[in-house]
Amino acid sequence: MRIVFMGTPEFAVPSLKALIQEHQVVGVFCQPDKPVGRHQNKLQSPPVKVCAQTHSIPVYQPEKLRDGAALTILRELAPELIVVAAYGRILPDEILALPLKGCINVHSSLLPKYRGAAPINWAILNGEVETGVTIMHMASELDAGDVILQQSTPIHPEETAEMLYGRLAELGGKMILEAVAQIEAGTASRIPQDHEQATLAPMLSKALSPVDWTRSAWEIHNQIRGLVPWPSATTDVITGDTMKLHRSCLPGTKSSACPGVIVAAGKEGIDIACGDGQVLRILELQAPGKKKMSAAAYLAGNPIQVK
Description:
With 307 residues, this protein is α/β, with parallel strands linked by helices. The protein folds into 2 domains: 2-197, Rossmann fold; 206-301, Methionyl-tRNA Fmet Formyltransferase, Chain A, domain 2, CATH 3.10.25. It is 26% helix and 25% strand. The strands form 3 sheets. Strands 5-2-1-6-7-8-9 form a 7-stranded mixed beta sheet, sandwiched between helices. Strands 10, 11, 12, 13, 14 and 15 form a 6-stranded antiparallel beta sheet that branches. The termini are far apart.
């Protein structure tokens, strides 16, 4: 089948690779290269672009989708199907209507829950114990199309958003081939979503970073793992400077200390009292201007006196 693929980050790469093996991918759309480095003077290609170029597939990086230029390119490519995975742009109606077999999307949640830009992060931030991947027919409304396939997977208690991201990316790569095969055979399901059950997963921001130690240990643990690798949970209770927190655990110990007080610091980590009387153990952190390191390594050079 002639397919145009639209995606940008690493999450989309397994889906693109799977399609390349089984189908004719005639073009790839992704977002423009981004400036990186301290002086923002170097351009970094999106992972999907790198993958496509490795397989000699034409790559298109339009700044806009509504000025007619992208539609002209797509008409020339004449895809039977458009597959989208974390493209980061909303497709206008004229593009959705172009392919004979429609447009489908690989989304990293169990829709209708967590529609939007950051479903993996918000599932962890909200303490979900299960998530998954949905393959759906695309509609004008954001992530609201009829479902073709869904597959769930548990979220492990110590799993960060970064870890889960990789697992769901691979799952999406496996599922997309089954969905495309069903579309090709004319057997693909169209299961309407229950829109009343829809929840949103908006873009992340640094406003989510500061830890409020009056919250429960479980909630703060979810905040830490849900904001990895960006924007990261932060706190100033360890040294007075704002530090990033990258990994934590729940040791199951209690404390009568005020929330935010360090109650233990050693080779196992840094234990901090939380609002529910439970202790949260910091396992990995990052001081300002430094690389991330284990709490034990940090304490070796920066001992903390526990009151």
